[in-house]
Amino acid sequence: MTKIAEDFLVKADEKAFDLNHRNTINHNIGKYNAAVERGLTKFENLENSKKKAHMVKWRVMENLDKFLPEFEANFQKRGGKVIWANDAEEAQREILNIINKNGGKTVIKSKSMTTEEIHINDFLEEHNITSLESDLGEFIVQLLGQAPYHIVTPAMHLSKEEIAKLFNEKFGTPIDFTPQQLTQKARELLREKYLSADIGITGGNFLIADTGSVVVTENEGNARLSTTFPKIHIAIVGIEKIIPSIADLDLFLPLLASHGTGQNLTVYNTILSGPRQPNETDGPEEMYVVLLDNGRTNLLAQKDQRQGLYCIRCGACLNACPIYKNIGGHTYATTYSGPIGSIITPHLKGMKEFKHLSYASSLCGKCSEVCPVKIDIHKMLLLNRRDAASQHANTKTEEIGWKMWDTSMSKRSRMDMVGGKLKNFFLKLFFKKMWGKYRDMPEVAPKSFSKLWQEKNKQTPKN
Question: Structural domains in the chain?
Answer without folding.
Answer: 42-294 (3.40.50.10420), 396-457 (no CATH)
